[in-house]
């Protein structure tokens, strides 16, 4: 038994350097004192009159998490290993939240979270004294207070008897604010459908790691689940079923839920490609509809693209995007623009006739098409977001404020910033959550996924947002996101394919490339914290998967190479 | 709209050749008539007096599935596309089950399913007349009747109004029986814990595809969740927690549940490696306990192996295996035998002293150890099962009836049959469900899993059980199984990582390499059936994942390469 006990002691020692925060704050000082929450612990506002409802709700959620997470420390013995010390530890009676002087009247978290990207105030300061008494969070906005509450929740464990405690007090965080404003996750709800409940659960996970941007790839060639009141025929003929839709109230429900949790929702209506399903109600607008073989007309079945050279189709597309965008609080809207198949247009007699009649080349027509949809966004005061092909492969004029999502390869980021455009990292070689599960097209015995291998959390975590970017362009990097395309996913594996992997980019784009002590982010020191996050997500009903055998999770470092 | 309707019609046409059976019967004749179940439909026994309770229960489950699956056909329009024809279709009032003459008194399914491998009677015949009236299933055993019921359930769809119908009557299946008796699935419950409920749900999935063998890798170096009454200290100190255990009644519950569903449970107690956790209560029996670096002492942490040269440890191991095996109905028991680390023993002073004292080499000691544990199994009338190293890498005398699981590579099967030993295919290059999700050991940024890439359902489906095996040895091939090692799995992704992939081997080892029409099994024709299975599993509460976008599932062939 001797060696076992020795080993346990060593592991406990090693564990003291970890702290269950994810993302790790950019500024952090900790001690080694245990303090617990008193039985009458409360969270109160200080100097904030007329607290916005969503701030009050956020406080209630934090109190609920502190009471219900019941996450015990990941050490041999779990909470019981600390319980004797917890009994005699000083108590915190109160957490007070305050806005810094000059912050002005408190706005709702929703309002703060849906401000234009780059103008949101997410920083906060937090203090937990080592002698108990009162903990504090202060910020310049309610959104900052939310971020602080999210940190606070993660500091507490359960000792197995219902007492919440932190073991690294005093904790001092001074102005922890994100390195990048865009910390995102993309979900495709077109190839397979996800319920509002599934999406809300995903937003819960995002909020718990301070993500700021949900990219909702809501429609695609396979289905059109979005009910647009001005174009009801699209979902009527394009949704998988009458139950697999997002009504206007569903969309409002989701964007409200997200905003209240510090997340802005970027809706994408991908154009002119990825639109086959529109032909079910508007065949006049779609070229090469379900043309065969699909491999000649699209990157995946079914083929079909908007007739970008047709004036009627341009008008339809602009009206559709306007109708959708005008209902959304976000200042951002994506018109997509990826994977345009030229052969589809070459083979489409109408498009050829339209081009001939207008005297435009394909690229000129694409430019006109894009100008038309982006003009609608501009009218609504919104910023366009596009996939990288629009900047790199086509001769499209993009407004200076356009945000370009770099997806084909991380190596393409430089080319985009060299055009003076803002970028969001979404590279398939780091951030595609769907890669590595084999090819999904039929009759393909040995097919692997096009973006093999599987992108591990470690791979995503190793991403450097400024890699290849000259210092003079560093301000063009707005952040990044992991992405789930759902050819082989649906609600069955939504949580397990996203969590905890997607937390990797949440930390990379919040914390940056170095931790609070100045040392580079490192998968070795990150793993114990990521275990904690994963077990905590489980406690909150998110089916995050195991990263290692539980034996390893209880013994930080013991399963390292 | 024209082209859309044309496309839909084509797809409906293509769909007629599919049939939602998995595994596809080895004998099958179908028509193209729709027949439905009458509102008073019942399943009755014919000529079976004193029906075993588990047969009656199986009948009730089938009736429940027929009522509650509510799976609509995977075609555009779903059940509604058939509902007009269903209304006027003839009705089946009754399904009768009978045992063939000479079958003798009906025994329980449990008793039939737990007979020795190779002696189980699983064949059945089934008829659904095209004019409705009475459907029949006959078999030589209640286990055969269960297999027939499982087929019957899969033939029926819901038309969206609660009516169950088949669209390919008359259906005639004459003596569909499995090509191989061992159609298995292995689950590791040691690296991470799974509840009894999780295991039962997995058994439900297995039964629905006529799998016959659940391989329960119940303990390993990381944890010892099995409560053995004679050795209570093992679970007391080795389980992850007092709640994460399998009590004797849990084990009986699981083996009973399995047997009633046509599944025998092979329990494995891996020896002499993979036993580190035993040191928590019996340090005297474990060499190189948690020795560092683990890479020098074990394939994965923590290191620790039974002191195979110690008489006391041999006696302990034999007693432990006997105590566990004697409670189990199966005629099979696995003593493991994989990944023995020789350096562990070389560095262990006690093992070196034991070897010197006995005058045995390491291999002689391993042989004695194995003889001792296998002698206990023989006393209990059980057949030993081992991993391939015991046959190929070590000088261990194995009884002729030993079953060897070939896991390192499919190419090693030949070497084992060349020794005259029976094999079960469990090759990591086809059947490991855990591969391809990246390395799980810590501090390993770019590490992929050792058995990359991900094993797709198509890859597993392409396996030929007789590949490389000379005809003279073909009878030594007892079947095969897919396997889930759970370093990166736990209840969060249990269903999604297993289903529907594990159905691939269920068909390969039931149907063999050719379908009922004599043509080779083919991923192209299999896919629509596998979609059906997957959607049906979902209806039954098993979180099987999407294989393709729903758009493709509704249009067989449309997403083929």
What would you say this structure looks like, in words?
- 2 copies of one chain form a homodimer.
- Chain A is 35% helix and 18% strand.
- Chain A is an alpha/beta fold and 561 residues long.
- The first copy, chain A, has 2 domains: 160 residues, Chitobiase/beta-hexosaminidase domain 2-like (Chitobiase, domain 2); 330 residues, TIM Barrel.
- In chain A, the strands form 3 sheets. Chain A has an 8-stranded parallel barrel with strand order 7-8-9-12-13-14-15-16.
- In chain A, helix 2 runs parallel beside helix 5, helix 6 runs parallel beside helix 8 and helix 10 runs parallel beside helix 13.
- The N terminus of chain A is likely disordered.
- The interface between A and B is large, with 76 and 76 residues.
N/C terminus separation of chain A: 25 Å
The CATH superfamily name of the largest domain in chain A is Glycosidases
Q: Write out the strand line-up for the largest beta sheet of chain A, numbering strands in chain order.
A: 7-8-9-12-13-14-15-16
Uncertain residue segments of chain A: 1-16
Number of domains of chain A: 2
Number of strands of chain A: 16
Number of helices of chain A: 21
What is the name of the CATH architecture of the largest domain in chain A? Alpha-Beta Barrel
Assembly annotation? homodimer
Q: What is the 3D shape of chain A? A: elongated
Provide mean pLDDT of chain A, rounded. 95
Q: Using CB atoms under 8 Å apart, which protein chain pair has the greatest interface?
A: A-B, 76 and 76 residues
- The share of residues in extended strands of chain A comes to 15-25%
Report the radius of gyration of chain A as a whole number of Å.
Answer: 25 Å
Secondary-structure-based class of chain A equals alpha/beta
The CATH topology of the largest domain in chain A, please?
TIM Barrel
């Amino acid at each position: 038994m001797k060696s076992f006990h020795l080993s346990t002691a060593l592991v406990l020692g090693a564990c003291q350097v970890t702290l269950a925060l994810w993302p790790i704050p950019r500024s952090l000082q900790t001690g080694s004192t245990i303090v617990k929450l008193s039985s009458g612990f409360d969270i109160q506002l200080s100097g904030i009159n007329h607290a916005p409802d969503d701030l009050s709700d956020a406080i209630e959620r934090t109190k609920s998490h502190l009471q219900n997470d019941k996450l015990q420390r990941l050490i041999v013995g779990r909470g019981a290993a600390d319980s004797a010390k917890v009994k005699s530890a000083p108590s915190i009676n109160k957490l007070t939240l305050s806005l810094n002087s000059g912050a002005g009247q408190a706005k709702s978290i929703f309002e703060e979270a849906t401000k234009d990207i780059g103008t949101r105030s997410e920083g906060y300061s937090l203090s937990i004294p080592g002698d108990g008494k009162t903990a504090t969070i202060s910020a310049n906005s309610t959104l900052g207070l939310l971020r602080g509450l999210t940190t606070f929740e993660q500091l507490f464990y359960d000792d197995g008897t219902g007492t919440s405690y932190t073991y690294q007090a005093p904790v001092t965080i001074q102005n922890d604010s994100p390195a990048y404003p865009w910390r995102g996750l993309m979900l495709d709800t077109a190839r397979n459908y996800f319920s509002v409940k599934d999406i809300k659960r995903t937003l819960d996970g995002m909020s718990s790691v301070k993500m700021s941007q949900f990219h909702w790839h809501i429609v695609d060639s396979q289905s059109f689940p979005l009910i647009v009141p001005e174009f009801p025929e699209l979902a009527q003929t394009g949704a998988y079923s009458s139950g697999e839709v997002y009504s206007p109230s569903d969309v409002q429900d989701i964007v409200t839920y997200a905003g209240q949790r510090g997340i802005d929702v970027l809706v994408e209506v991908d154009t002119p490609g990825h639109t086959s399903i529109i032909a079910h109600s508007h065949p006049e607008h779609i070229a090469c509809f379900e043309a065969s073989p699909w491999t000649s007309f699209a990157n995946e079945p079914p083929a079909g693209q908007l007739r970008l050279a047709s004036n009627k189709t341009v008008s339809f597309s602009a009206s559709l995007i306007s109708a959708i965008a005008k209902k959304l609080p976000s200042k951002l809207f994506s018109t997509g623009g990826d994977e345009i198949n030229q052969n589809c247009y070459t083979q489409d007699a109408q498009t050829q006739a339209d081009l001939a009649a207008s005297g435009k080349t394909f690229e000129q027509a694409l430019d006109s098409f894009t100008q038309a949809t982006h003009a609608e966004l501009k009218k609504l005061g919104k910023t366009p977001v596009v996939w990288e092909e629009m900047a790199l492969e086509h001769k499209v004029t993009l407004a200076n404020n356009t945000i370009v999502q770099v997806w084909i390869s991380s190596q393409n980021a430089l080319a985009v910033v060299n055009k003076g455009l803002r970028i969001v990292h979404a590279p398939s070689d780091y951030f595609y959550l769907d890669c590595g599960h084999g090819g999904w097209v039929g009759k393909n015995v040995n097919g692997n996924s096009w973006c093999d291998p599987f992108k591990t959390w470690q791979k995503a975590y190793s991403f450097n947002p400024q890699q290849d970017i000259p210092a003079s362009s560093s301000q063009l990097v707005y952040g990044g996101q992991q992405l789930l395309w759902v050819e082989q996913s649906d609600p069955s594996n939504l949580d397990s394919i996203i969590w905890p992997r997607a937390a990797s980019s949440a930390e990379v784009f919040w914390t940056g490339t170095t931790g609070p002590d100045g040392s580079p982010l490192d998968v070795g020191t990150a793993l114990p914290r990521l275990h904690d996050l994963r077990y905590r997500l489980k406690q909150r009903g998110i089916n995050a998967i195991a990263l290692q055998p539980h034996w390893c999770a209880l013994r930080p470092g013991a399963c390292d190479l």
